[in-house]
Amino acid sequence: MIDYIWSLLANPTIKKLVLSVISVILIYFIGYLVQISAGRHVEDGETRFRAKKWIKNLSYIIILLVLLAIFSDQLGGLAVFVGAVSVGIAIALQEVIVSVAGWMAVTMGKFYRPGDRVQLGGIKGDVMDISVLRTTIMEVGEWLEADLPTGRTVRIANSFVFKEPVFNYTSNFPFLWDELKIPIRHGSDYVLTRDLLQKVAQVISDPIIAEAAHSWKEMKRSYFIDDVTMAPQVTMKITDNWLEFTVRYIVGYRNRRFTRDLLFTRILEEIKLYPDRITIASATIALVETPSIHVKMD
To answer: Which of 74, 136, 209, 223 has the fewest CB atoms within 10 Å, counting from its CB?
Structure first.
């Protein structure tokens, strides 16, 4: 048996195959140990995740280079074979190839990264992982009114980046503009109402206005965009039923629900201080004229 094994190992091809298997196992095992070490010593979650991803990708690259080095003298003979099957592979694995190209575009073009909130293929969520073929996200919204996770993970082929727009809520400017509409009854003091809404919105927005302005300034270095005001704005529109005030304000992309709740609460508290001057409107039906009714009795 031993002589038979040695005779097999004397064959150059068998020897290279054995060496390849040993090399792959050894490199993979070392990479696995390094990932465990990184997981134990790196406290920051995002940094730990990125380190483990880079170590895994580096292991694959090293394995590929080692295999190329082992079979370097046979690559010339494989050229014709590779050329013959490449067309068939391209047709059979078209979607896979496009997904790999999409992964390269996402990685090099910095479309998004793990932790970003995005909308991909009509699905909104937080990016959990970006693999060679698919992007995994934690779905947000859907049947929930708020921008909160639903608990469902969604895997989307990377090929979609060449077919549909990619919406990123966080990469360059992690803020959004949101609006509240407040109906006020006709006859209310609209000047006082405007001042009150402006004051409340300013107090709520003040903590992030400076940070948002800095992010916008940084984004202007990369894109051709105009300056915008970060201060909240209050506008009024007259309708048949009420005076409609719109409060426009800046908010962090993860804090829309909390900020809306805080604004509504503060606005109601302020309006209660002026019961004779400001009244919240509601849908009403007004009878402008009652038609004449003629009753004839026999």
So the answer is: 223
